[in-house]
UniProtKB/TrEMBL annotation:
It comes from Mycena venus. The keyword Iron applies. Belongs to the chloroperoxidase family. Its cofactor is heme b. Residues 1-20 form the signal peptide. Residues 29-238 form the Heme haloperoxidase family profile domain. Keywords: Heme, Iron, Metal-binding, Oxidoreductase, Peroxidase, Signal. GO terms for molecular function: metal ion binding; peroxidase activity. PROSITE patterns: HEME_HALOPEROXIDASE (PS51405). The keyword Iron applies. InterPro entries: Chloroperoxidase (IPR000028), Chloroperoxidase-like_sf (IPR036851). This is Putative Cloroperoxidase.
Amino acid sequence: MLLISLSLLLMASAIPRILGFSSDLTHSDKYQWIAPNVTDVRSPCPGLNTLANHGFLPRNGKNITIPMVLGAALDGFNFHPETILLAAKLALLTGDDHTTFNLDRLALHNVIEADASLSRNDAAIGDNLHFNETTFSTLANANPGVDYYNITSAVQVQQDRLADSIANNPNVTNTLKEFSFRSGASALYLSAMGDPVTGVAPKNFVQIFFREERMPIAEGWKRSTTPTTGETLASIQGAIMAASKWTPTQACEPIVLGPGIVL
Ligand code: HEM
């Protein structure tokens, strides 16, 4: 009897995952925000760091598998797996293990980590791993006069951040890959902190997400009941790219296939 009840319970907890809409776990004690300790590692990505700070990913930031990332993004942000699968696969290139990666290794330049980030320095001229308030001030001060960020402000922020990198980083990498990834990252913060369909996100939620790598639950944020899907994310990313009047700085980039493997 106990076995039957247990298996029913396990099945019940698996059902939402199978159907693709897990229930909102973000308010449970198990997933409360705890700052990383000195031996925990974190990444250049505020999304993954937030998931680790809330315990959706291992709090030590180590030995993370692709299924763990996909499950954490679904449980924490209601992101469907296809929205981050490519990034999760690329993450394995940043380390030596076949099936796991550590968050800090994601700073390996030009695998996913790119120049002209929203909240980190360029690798060639500074610390590309940790949050930097000066870099983030472009986004923090965007869209003056209203209390939300949107696709239009994201375009402006990306243009300003890229102009700054081109002016100050003689080694800036700015090909279609980085432009596409940067636009994807903008779509990710708008979707995680705001409405994944319209791409409108309250400023205070976005600022807490970047500065504290925390879900702003106490401030009123809720995990969106509308999932972020491949379609919604591509729609916002595509709108950002279309409005960006972007030009490449170079046609090709160094191809980084792993630590010390650069073609
Ligand atoms: C779970 C949902 C995710 C969200 C909400 C998210 C959000 C973001 C945002 C907003 C940035 C831009 C940071 C900046 O420019 O300062 C970013 C960057 C980054 N993300 Fe994520 N991300 C997610 C998933 C992932 C996954 C699955 C990976 C790989 C395993 C990843 C790896 C990275 C890396 C390496 C960067 C640095 C890129 C750069 O240099 O600009 N992210 N992410």
